[in-house]
Amino acid sequence: MQHQNKNDGVSEWLRKQNRFSKEELEKLNALFKKVTTTNDNNGNGSAFSYSMMREAVPKTQSMDRVMFKELLHDTFHMLTEDIITDRIFAAFDKRNDGLIDNDEWLFGLSVFLKGTLQEQINFAFYIYDLNSDGAITKDEIFTLLRNSLLKLPQDEDGDESIKELVELTLKKLDTDHDSRITLSDFTEAVLKDNLLLEALGQCLPSDEVCQNFFNNIDFKN
After folding, report:
1. Around Cβ 136, how many Cβ atoms within 10 Å?
2. What is the DSSP letter of 196?
3. Using an 8 Å Cβ cutoff, are 77 and 205 in contact?
4. What global pTM score does this model have?
5. Range list of β-strands (E), 63-212
6. Which of 182, 198, 179 has the alpha carbon at shortest distance from 190?
């Protein structure tokens, strides 16, 4: 889910997508509208079309970083640290303008809720590659583990414990043993052991949340 320009194919994907049903798209639009505005929902229940889907949410409506973080916590039950929630926001914000519009919202949720394993591997790698240089380094692993997994005091003993965990993590994920984790390394490791997908911190909703999402969420204003 790397950043692209305004012609990034998000809208084209929405026209062709078949991952969400009509009813699911309507619910996702309603949730987006509920989060981003207090205006009444003006849906009239008529025949559904892509153009109506876009018109249902004004182009000026968008989700900012604060709204998104609250949504991750309250709706997806993700208790991740700011460093990861900021990266998740960046992954959704494909146009890199500091806001998530309705198209980006739907595109991001296609991976978040119904992504293939490879799509989720790509997503998680993007989250963990903090400087987006194509590799996860020891420093990035250290930062992620300190902020996301451990609540140790910031002292030398705590740092040494994290450094030991960094080395253990590298052994699991660095399949070509060059002291950095590329997407190829990460993919190979996760395909062998799916539990390694979120080894550096939760960046996707749980299977239970995904399976029950459309039944459990109040999509009404």
Report:
1. 26
2. G
3. yes
4. 0.81
5. 135-136, 181-182
6. 198
Read off the amino acid at residue 73: H
Q: What SS3 string covers 137-177?
A: CHHHHHHHHHHHHCCCCCCHHHHHHHHHHHHHHHHHHCCCC
* CA–CA gap between residue 215 and residue 61 (Å, rounded): 25
Tokens of 134: 């194509």
Report in angstroms the alpha-carbon separations of 208 from 54, 82, 186.
Answer: 29, 23, 24
Band of pLDDT at residue 6, cut at 50, 70 and 90: very low
Place of tokens 């190829």: 184
Beta carbons of 150 and 158 less than 8 angstroms apart:
yes
| pLDDT tens digits along 116-147 | 999 999 999 999 999 999 999 999 999 999 88
Closest to 25 in 3D by CA, of 59, 48, 2: 48
Higher pLDDT, 22 or 56: 22
The two three-digit tokens of residue 171, written as one number:
């052994």
| Helix (H/G/I), strand (E/B), else coil: 82 | helix
Question: Would you say 108 and 2 are in contact if contact means Cβ atoms under 8 Å apart?
Answer: no
